[in-house]
């Protein structure tokens, strides 16, 4: 494949400008592709003095969205939307889209209370309030059964009362109401037609049909051969401490438990279908259970539409989660484990910049690795610094919690990975409770152990050691 052509000097300048407001290299390059929207974004940056604002990446992404969708707005209208993004009234691309439509239809000066209402600013709703809205809708509409599920969900999501509610919460509330009113979904499925009885005397099967039948009866099954066929039975793997196996069998009831743990920061792609098939399919083949666990540890990138889309995709592929869980269900437990990690002198708070960490790991020359200045700080000091992280004393990038691993290992996943970082972003479930969030590398294997097992595909093999340390 020939190398990609370098961007023109003008495009390269735009990319650097877009990166200066917080966009990543890839997102800045994407924003520079369209001459029209790139020109609008450049205009927004320059006229609103955004280079000096020290924006978060999520805000920069929303500004890029505004540039694409708000190209027809006047400068003053765009400035109003920019202000709403900077003061965190607009927090999602959906809200930015609504803001653009509102500003196109309403001349200045803007009625802020009405703007906030139409754009979902500060919207909150409890699960019981969602359930009440669903109940009222089912009472007033001619809903006859599960066949109306899609229509009901669509109608509720466009209603003024639930326009800004979490799509996944609405879907779950509707399905709970349907189950209560119409019974379980599976029981409501129409029965297939009875096969016609043969009246004529069956002719003698040919050799070809006999071979075909023999082939069908001995058809191969992906779950009984290859690496899946060699997986041990529940409780069948040797344990140094036998009581752990007994506890495991008691917790699982002897059933296979698997999980599909996507990150809700984008739509699933074709590669995810393998993970869905293996996890849900293997559990079903063995009469077990499969969790759908949303790995929601990055609130800056997560949106309600991704939660809904992921669940719809799993169901479109023909599977139903045994339970839907979230990594955020375990935030308290993960925090306690992080404290324990520090107390065991296996974790430390680090203040190195990204460039310093890269240099300590060998840099561009891939030279010898060295410990940072904070690795040997006293346990009491790291505990105090971690508490400062938790209470919001530090801004993003100023402090991280790292795991003490093995800097001499050839495996990059052993080079003192980050366990916790500071993020000034509200979470869709825990809201403003946390200023620190666990990383994927710290969270994933622990949540696996809480619910099932830690599993990975071989192209993630370098993660193996990090997952068991």
UniProtKB/TrEMBL annotation:
Residues 13-167, 170-248 form the Glutaminyl-tRNA synthetase class Ib non-specific RNA-binding domain. The keyword Nucleotide-binding applies. Residues 185-217 are annotated as: Disordered. Residues 202-217 have a biased composition (Low complexity). Keywords: Aminoacyl-tRNA synthetase, ATP-binding, Ligase, Nucleotide-binding, Protein biosynthesis. Gene3D superfamilies: 1.10.10.2420, Glutaminyl-tRNA synthetase, non-specific RNA binding region part 1, domain 1, HUPs. InterPro entries: Gln-tRNA-synth_Ib_RNA-bd_2, Gln-tRNA-synth_Ib_RNA-bd_N, Gln-tRNA-synth_Ib_RNA-bd_N_1, Gln-tRNA-synth_Ib_RNA-bd_N_2, Gln/Glu-tRNA_Ligase, Glu/Gln-tRNA-synth, Glu/Gln-tRNA-synth_Ib_cat-dom, Rossmann-like_a/b/a_fold. GO terms for cellular component: cytosol. One of its GO terms (molecular function) is glutamine-tRNA ligase activity. It holds the Pfam family tRNA_synt_1c_R2. One of its GO terms (biological process) is glutaminyl-tRNA aminoacylation. Residues 256-451 form the Glutamyl/glutaminyl-tRNA synthetase class Ib catalytic domain. Residues 185-201 have a biased composition (Basic and acidic residues). Belongs to the class-I aminoacyl-tRNA synthetase family. This is Glutaminyl-tRNA synthetase. It comes from Cerrena zonata. The lineage of its organism: Eukaryota, Fungi, Dikarya, Basidiomycota, Agaricomycotina.
